[in-house]
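Curious: why these numbers?
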Amino acid sequence: MSSGRTTAIAGSLLTASFSAVMILSFTASADDQGPGSSKGGKAVDAAPTGVRLTTQLPESISVDNSSKETELTATVKNEGSKESGAVRLLVVGFDGLTVKNVQGCSEIAAGDLPKGSNSGFSCAVGNLAAGKSKSYDVDATFDLGKTGKICLPVQTADGAKTYWQQGPVPFGTNNPSPNAPATPLLLGTDNKPVAPGADKLPRTGPARELLPLGAVGAALLSAGAAGMWWSRRRPGQQPQV
């Protein structure tokens, strides 16, 4: 075998190996969100007998410090013994977390969003068989100078009933890293905002600092109550998406 041919074959093998490594690396980073969690979820309206709908969010996400972009997976699952009937999943952003797109879903009109939310999408899940789940890729942005929450209600197709609602549950970190390429955030953790380009946490104002614990708890309950709007509105007032 000539040296030229040997060199060409070696080069081809090296290129193939490099491509394989790149593909494996991309796959690993795309799926690196930790296990799914139903943290912050609760049943709302009674589901049909044999139907138990829940949702899951990743335990961790990563926010690009330059673009503020992040991505996550929202999953709805029927953990019951009977099919769910036609249902839909809503993906709604609050505060610093803004939902930009949910693959295969329709954007909720601004006038139909709940008070305090900034964005939302409606996903027609359809009839979910017992033990089955369906996942949706979510593109979002997260302003690390603010707190950020997400909410996943599961409703009947017409929005008349909400069988399950996860959130509004926060993503955040107690250890901001403004100078790093990305900041990891954990589900169920209140974000400690950091001012752009600063290494110190900003003061959020005396009013917040002087709030008694009871008032803080009431404020959090109010945020949760705002997310319960779907189950309290009349069927005719549901977002048409």
